[in-house]
Specification:
The complex is a heterodimer. By secondary structure, chain A is mainly α. Chain A has a domain at 74-243: MetI-like fold (Orthogonal Bundle), CATH 1.10.3720.10. Chain A has 13 helices and no strands. By secondary structure, chain B is an all-alpha fold. Chain B folds into two domains: 1-45; 80-324, MetI-like (MetI-like fold), CATH 1.10.3720.10. Chain B has 14 helices and two strands. Chain B has a two-stranded antiparallel sheet. In chain B, strand 1 (61-62) and strand 2 (70-71) form a beta hairpin. The longest helix of chain B is centred in the N-terminal third of the chain and has 35 residues, at 86-120. The two termini of chain B are 56 Å apart. Classes of the chains: A mainly alpha, B mainly alpha. Chains A and B meet through helix 1, helix 3, helix 4, helix 5 and helix 9 of A and helix 1, helix 2, helix 4, helix 5 and helix 6 of B.
C-alpha cells in the first residue's frame, strides 16, 4: 500500500520535470530561430570573404564594411534626416497626444463629445492614399520634411491610450490644483505630465520607433533623394540601385549587411532597457481602453 | 385672456432656452483654456484627415495633375468592375488583400496563443524574461530592414544562408537549383507568412501574457487538488481565460485588413506581382509605377472603394466588439 502511494507521488513530479525540460528546449529553439537571421547579418557584416554560405562566424574579419558605410558622405545625410525627424516628430506627437488626451477627460466640457467623435471618425473613414497625396501636394507639403514630421504626429489610437492613462489620475489631484489657483494649462504641466511619466515613456517610445522606421510616408511624399531618411537609403542600397562604389576590401554584400546593422544598432543598444516600457504601452490599451 | 394663457408657456420656454444658453456660455468660458489646448489637435486632424477627404471628389474626375480635372461621373467605377483588363487586376488585388490579410491574422494569432500558453508554464522567471526579450525584438525592426535581411538570407546564390543549407543537406543537388524564394510565385506567399510569423508572433504574445498573468493562481491550485494534470489545466483553465482576448485581437485586426501595404510592398517584385498584389500596392503601382501619366481619378476611385469596405469592416467589428466585450467598442 505504502509502495503504490510512493509511486503515485513520484510519477507526476517526474512528468512535470520532463515537461519543463522539453518546454525549455522548445523555447531555446524558438529563440535561435528568431536570433539566427539577425546574427547572420551581423556576422556577414564583418566578413570580408563573400560566399558566406552557412558560416555563422566571419572567415576574414574586418571593419571595412562599416568603414564604407561611415566613410560615405551620402549616408550621413539620411542618418541626419532620420535623427532629426525622429526627435522633432516624437516631441510633437507627444505634445499632441497629451493635449488631446487631457481635453478629452474634461467630461463636463461643452463640446467634449463632438471633439471625441471628430477624432474617432478618422479611425473609421479616411481619404485614401491618392486623395491624401493630391491634397498634401496642393498644400505644398510634398517633397518637404514637414510632411514626414507632421503627418504621423497625430495618432488617434495613441491619443486614446494616453487618455486611458490620464483617466487613472485621481480627481482629487485636479481639485486641489484648482483650489491652488492653477489654470488648466498649469495643472497640465505641473500635475498631469509629471504623474504620467510611464505613459509618456511608453507612448513616446512607440512614436520614436514609428518615426525611425518610417518608410511609407517617405515613399509616398518624398521624391527628392536629398530628403531620404536612412530607411529609404537602405532600401535603395539593398535593392542594388544605389550602392556606394567600393574602394576598399569590402564587397557590396558586406556593405549591405553593415548598413542593415547600422539601421538597427541604436535600437538594439537601447532595447533591453526599454522593453518594459513598450510592454506597458500595450497593456495600458489592453487593460482599460 | 386666452391670448395670455397661450403666450405664457412660450415665454417660459424662451426664457429657459436663453438661461440654458447663458449657462453653456459661462461653462464654455470656464473651459476656454481647454479649447485653446485642443486647437492644435483640431488643426492637425483637419489638415491630415479631413482635408484629404475633399480629395475624394477626384474619384469622379479624370485628372492627371497637368490638365484641369474633368467630371466623368462613375466612369472609373465602371472601369474597375467591368473593363476586361483593369477589372481582372482589380478583383485579383481585392482577393489577394483578403486572402493574405486574413490568413496572416489567423496564423500569427494562433501561433501567439500557443507560444503564450507554453511560455506561461515556464517556471524559471529569468529564463522566461530572456525568452520574452528575444521574441519581442523583431517587431521593432522596420519592414525595410526585415525585407533587406531576408532578401540576403534567402538569396539564390552562395551568400544565402537558406539555399546553402538546403544544398548541404542535399535537398537541392547543385548550385543551379538554388531557389529564388522571393521571386517565385509558388514560394512568395509561404515565405511572406513565415517572415510575418518571425516578426510578429512574439509581440502578439504580450497581450495574451497580460491576460494570463491575471488568472488567479488559486484556481490552478484548486485544479491540482482535484487531480487535474498540466495539460488538463492548460486546456480547461488557461485557454478559456484567454478565449475572449483571442476574439478581441481578431476583431481589432479584422477591422484593419484592407490597410495591408508596407509589408507586402517591400517584399514584392515584378516576378510575383500576380500573387502578391494587394489593393494598396495596386493603387500605388497604378499611380506612380505604371510608366504612363497617372490617372489619379481611377486610383482615387479604387481607393474610395477600399476606404468604404474598410469603413464597413470597422463598423461591423465595432458592433461585434461591443457584443462580446461588455459594451467596449473599438473606436
Amino acid at each position: 500500500m505504502a509502495n503504490t502511494n510512493k509511486v503515485k507521488a513520484v510519477n507526476p513530479n517526474n512528468r512535470i520535470k520532463t515537461f519543463n525540460v522539453i518546454n525549455a528546449i522548445i523555447f531555446i529553439i524558438v529563440a535561435f530561430i528568431i536570433i539566427i537571421p539577425m546574427w547572420k547579418i551581423l556576422s556577414d557584416s564583418f566578413d570580408l570573404r563573400t560566399s558566406y554560405g552557412m558560416r555563422l562566424w566571419p572567415k576574414q574579419f574586418g571593419f571595412d564594411g562599416y568603414m564604407e558605410v561611415f566613410g560615405k558622405v551620402s549616408l550621413y545625410r539620411p542618418l541626419l534626416v532620420s535623427v532629426l525627424t525622429t526627435v522633432c516628430g516624437t516631441a510633437l506627437a507627444l505634445t499632441l497626444s497629451t493635449l488631446g488626451a487631457y481635453v478629452l477627460i474634461q467630461w463636463d466640457m461643452p463640446g467634449r463629445k463632438f471633439f471625441a467623435n471628430y477624432l474617432l471618425f478618422t479611425m473609421i473613414f479616411n481619404g485614401g492614399m491618392i486623395p491624401t497625396y493630391l491634397v498634401l501636394s496642393s498644400l505644398g507639403l510634398v517633397n518637404t520634411l514637414w510632411v514626414v514630421i507632421l503627418f504621423p504626429a497625430l495618432n488617434v489610437y495613441n491619443l486614446v491610450l494616453m487618455r486611458n492613462f490620464f483617466e487613472g489620475i485621481p480627481g482629487s489631484m485636479y481639485e486641489s490644483a484648482a483650489l491652488d489657483g492653477c489654470t488648466p494649462f498649469q495643472t497640465f504641466i505641473r500635475i498631469v505630465l509629471p504623474m504620467s511619466k510611464a505613459a509618456l515613456a511608453s507612448i513616446g517610445l512607440m512614436f520614436a520607433v514609428t518615426y525611425w522606421n518610417d518608410y511609407t510616408h517617405y515613399k509616398l511624399y518624398i521624391n527628392d533623394s536629398q530628403l531620404y531618411n536612412f530607411q529609404m537609403k537602405l532600401r535603395d542600397m539593398v535593392m542594388g540601385s544605389d550602392l556606394p562604389v567600393s574602394s576598399s576590401l569590402a564587397n557590396e554584400n558586406t556593405i549591405k549587411n553593415a548598413a542593415i546593422i547600422v539601421a538597427i544598432l541604436p535600437f538594439m543598444i537601447a532595447y533591453p532597457f526599454l522593453q518594459k516600457y513598450f510592454v506597458k504601452g500595450v497593456n495600458i490599451g489592453a487593460v482599460k481602453e | 385672456m386666452s391670448k395670455n394663457v397661450d403666450a405664457a408657456p412660450t415665454a417660459t420656454v424662451a426664457v429657459s432656452t436663453t438661461t440654458k444658453w447663458k449657462k453653456i456660455k459661462t461653462k464654455m468660458w470656464k473651459y476656454r483654456g481647454f479649447y485653446l489646448m485642443f486647437l492644435p489637435v483640431f488643426i492637425f486632424a483637419l489638415f491630415f484627415f479631413y482635408l484629404p477627404m475633399i480629395g475624394i471628389r477626384y474619384a469622379f474626375y479624370d485628372y492627371n495633375g497637368l490638365k484641369e480635372a474633368t467630371f466623368v461621373g462613375i466612369k472609373h467605377f465602371k472601369t474597375m468592375f467591368t473593363d476586361p483588363f483593369k477589372s481582372k487586376d482589380f478583383f485579383n488585388a481585392v482577393l489577394n488583400t483578403v486572402e493574405i490579410s486574413v490568413f496572416k491574422l489567423l496564423l500569427t494569432t494562433g501561433f501567439a496563443v500557443i507560444v503564450s500558453i507554453f511560455l506561461n508554464e515556464m517556471i524559471n522567471i529569468h529564463f522566461k524574461k530572456v525568452i520574452q526579450t528575444i521574441i519581442y525584438l523583431p517587431h521593432f525592426l522596420s519592414w525595410v530592414v526585415t525585407a533587406s535581411l531576408f532578401s540576403l538570407i534567402l538569396a539564390p546564390n552562395s551568400h544565402g544562408l537558406i539555399n546553402t543549407f538546403l544544398l548541404n543537406i542535399g535537398v537541392i543537388k547543385s548550385a543551379d537549383e538554388y531557389i529564388y524564394f522571393l521571386g517565385s510565385s509558388a514560394w512568395w506567399r509561404p515565405i511572406y507568412f513565415l517572415i510575418n510569423l518571425w516578426k510578429e508572433t512574439g509581440w502578439q504574445t504580450v497581450i495574451f501574457m497580460a491576460t494570463l498573468s491575471g488568472i488567479n493562481p488559486e484556481l490552478y491550485e484548486a485544479a491540482s487538488i482535484d487531480g487535474a494534470g498540466r495539460f488538463q489545466k492548460m486546456r480547461y483553465l488557461t485557454f478559456p481565460a484567454i478565449r475572449n482576448t483571442i476574439l478581441t485581437v481578431i476583431i481589432l485586426n479584422l477591422a484593419k485588413i484592407m490597410n495591408l501595404f508596407e509589408s507586402v510592398w517591400v517584399l514584392q517584385n515584378n516576378a510575383v506581382i500576380q500573387t502578391s498584389q494587394v489593393l494598396e500596392t495596386y493603387i500605388y503601382n497604378q499611380t506612380f509605377n505604371s510608366g504612363r501619366i497617372p490617372n489619379y481619378g481611377y486610383t482615387a476611385a479604387v481607393g474610395l472603394f477600399k476606404s468604404l469596405i474598410g469603413m464597413v469592416l470597422v463598423l461591423v467589428c465595432n458592433h461585434w466588439s461591443k457584443k462580446v466585450r461588455e459594451g467596449r467598442g473599438i473606436v
